[in-house]
Amino acid sequence: MSARGLLGSDEPLATRYDLALVDLDGVAYRGHEPIDGAAEGLARARAAGMRLVFVTNNASREPEAVADQLSGLDIPTRPDEVMTAAQAAAELLATRVPAGEPVLVVGGAGLHTAVAVKGYRVVASADDEPVAVVQGYAAHLGWTELAEAAYAVQRGAWHVASNLDLSLPTARGFAPGNGALVGAVRAATGVEPASAGKPSPTMYRLAVERAGASRPLVVGDRLDTDLAGARAGELPGLHVLTGVSTARDAVLAVPGERPHYLAADLRALLVPHPEPLPDAGWWTCRGAAARVVDGALELHGTPVDPVDVARAACAAAWDAVDRGEELDPRAVPELPV
């Protein structure tokens, strides 16, 4: 199968990999609500020897606050098991800006702390002549803060974004994310910012180094950030279907955003994963079968698990596209899991 296809594992992922790099929103929780199977899956994965680091594009909160929220959802977590985009942004700053320089921070407490801990002088105005602007999401941000960022970038400050997520999942739906706010500064200045968050693999690299892991696994719900970051960092990625990207999205994923494993929720860490295999023109996975004929995805069989339909469909679609065939998105149905 294509090197960009799904993998199989004869053993549970929790024993195959020594570290899970777990996204938060849409994976461990949704807004302030727990996700079914998350606490159980992570607890049993830990018991099997897998270590966890929670890696989030959210730069607004301190690691301590994130750890407290997880612990309150029956996922006991230490602050050093949290890696935020704020920490990654501060690390990215350090590649070009010496400690002690003035940096305009536009974001929440987590970003202010991360930049200050790295040794920079945090300022709030473009008139303080910052050499860089670091921008992250915070619910309180408004025109005044975005304008200061734009003024500083126009004067030559390096613009660093904690992430470029256009949307942010909440209990009420999707709200504008940091990427939407960064877009306002970009529109005013014409300057393309650097980004520290996913899909850049920077946070994954830092988390792996911190943990001293040798066999990390990325776990996420968004193909365009979590799983794209896994591909960019040449790390295996598990796509759980509890958040933003659906099984249909996975079938239609471009090569740089394809997951290596597909599952309903975090309990998937506790079980082996079947690999789809070719069979007489079909791609099969434990009773499910799929193929692409004249641009249309065809499904057949009686699967052991509904996820097996999605796995077979991904294998068939990706193989067809990689061989140069057309795949009509209109012929790819929603795949309930």
Automatic annotation (TrEMBL):
Keyword annotations of the record: Hydrolase
Q: Which domain of life is it from?
A: Bacteria
> What Pfam families does the record point to?
GNAT_like (PF18407), Hydrolase_6 (PF13344), Hydrolase_like (PF13242)
Matches recorded under SUPFAM superfamilies: HAD-like
From the UniProt record, which GO molecular function terms apply?
A: phosphatase activity
Would you tell me the Gene Ontology cellular component terms?
A: cytoplasm
In terms of Gene3D superfamilies, this protein maps to: HAD superfamily/HAD-like (3.40.50.1000)
Q: Where is the GCN5-related N-acetyltransferase-like domain?
A: 285-329
Give TM regions: none
Protein name per its UniProtKB record: HAD-superfamily hydrolase, subfamily IIA
What is the scientific name of the source organism?
Cellulomonas flavigena (strain ATCC 482 / DSM 20109 / BCRC 11376 / JCM 18109 / NBRC 3775 / NCIMB 8073 / NRS 134)
